[in-house]
Structures are given as structure tokens and as C-alpha cells.
Write a structure and sequence with these properties.
Length: 61
């Protein structure tokens, strides 16, 4: 599946704030996620990010 900046994705594990929805703010060798509930930003390697994403909720603009 192809991911773009602005996409909203659901992850397997929830963030400590309780949200499973994240906005992609960087896509490339690394993925940068922004929590939709608390705004926390997390960065992880592409390989790991593709494993934790379960589905794309919304496409970015």
C-alpha cells in the first residue's frame, strides 16, 4: 500500500493517551507520525512502520 503525507492511519497498538489514529507527516526512509489525540510526534524506520500500520483511515489532501 502507498502512503502519503497527510494520510490518517490506524496502528496495532494504541498510544498511551488512548488513540490508535495517527497522521503521517513524513514519508520516506523514515515515517513520522503525529498522534490525533494528544499531538505527540513519533519517528520510526519505514520497515517497522509498515508492520505497525493496520489500515489507512483517510487519504491526505
Amino acid at each position: 500500500m502507498e502512503y502519503n503525507i497527510g494520510d490518517i492511519v490506524r496502528t496495532k497498538k494504541q498510544h498511551p493517551c488512548g488513540s490508535k489514529l495517527w497522521e503521517l507527516i513524513r514519508v520516506g526512509v523514515d515515517f513520522k507520525f503525529k498522534c490525533q489525540n494528544c499531538g505527540h510526534i513519533v519517528m520510526m524506520p519505514r520497515e517497522k512502520a509498515l508492520k505497525v500500520i493496520t489500515k489507512k483511515e483517510k487519504s491526505g489532501d
